[in-house]
TrEMBL record:
This is Reverse transcriptase zinc-binding domain-containing protein. It comes from Citrus x changshan-huyou. InterPro entries: RVT-Znf (IPR026960). Residues 89-156 form the Reverse transcriptase zinc-binding domain.
Length: 167
């Protein structure tokens, strides 16, 4: 059974228990068990702070265009490196990126194609239908979910990466 999707406007507050950290039941409702275990290991701040949009790729939130461009170039180069000289070069680059560990793990899982796309879940006999839940395409591969799906493209168009012609 697939986890229930979250609306785009969902904030982290929805996934928190007001008294004692993560709301485990909601996490289990919306994420895969392996992801729930990872999320539950994330430490929460000791004092409450309101949700806010935050660009964590740079210490100076005023520099998001420059740091966004730098990140986009790193990602493009890592993809090129991974394709042309082997995946291990891409892995090495991922571990040197100045990004949070969760981003490195996400990128590493992309290179290793272990994200629970529907195609991967069909291969592992978890699901029998590999069609995309959002657009109905026949195969929800990693590339489809991240780049080719009309819904993913709509998200990319709302980011700064669209301005650089990367997506
Ligand atoms: Zn799709």
């Amino acid at each position: 059974m697939s986890p229930a999707s979250l609306p785009l406007e969902t904030t982290v507050d929805y996934l928190l228990n007001p008294r004692n950290g993560w709301h485990a039941a909601r996490l289990r409702e919306h994420f895969l068990p392996t992801d729930v275990e990872l999320i539950l290991t994330l430490k929460l701040p000791s004092e409450h702070k309101d949700d806010a949009v935050f660009w964590h790729f740079d210490k100076c939130s005023m520099c998001i265009v420059e740091s966004g461009y730098r990140l986009a170039i790193q990602l493009r180069d890592s993809a090129t490196a991974g394709l042309s000289v082997g995946v291990s070069k891409g892995w090495n680059l991922i571990w040197t990126l100045q990004v949070p560990a969760k981003v490195k793990i996400f990128l590493w899982r992309i290179l290793d194609n272990v994200h629970p796309t529907k195609v991967n879940l069909v291969i592992r006999k978890v699901l029998s239908d590999a069609s995309c839940s959002l657009c109905g395409s026949l195969c929800e591969t990693l590339m489809h979910a991240l780049f080719h799906c009309a819904f993913a493209q709509k998200v990319w168009r709302e980011t700064i990466f669209a301005d650089f012609g990367i997506m």
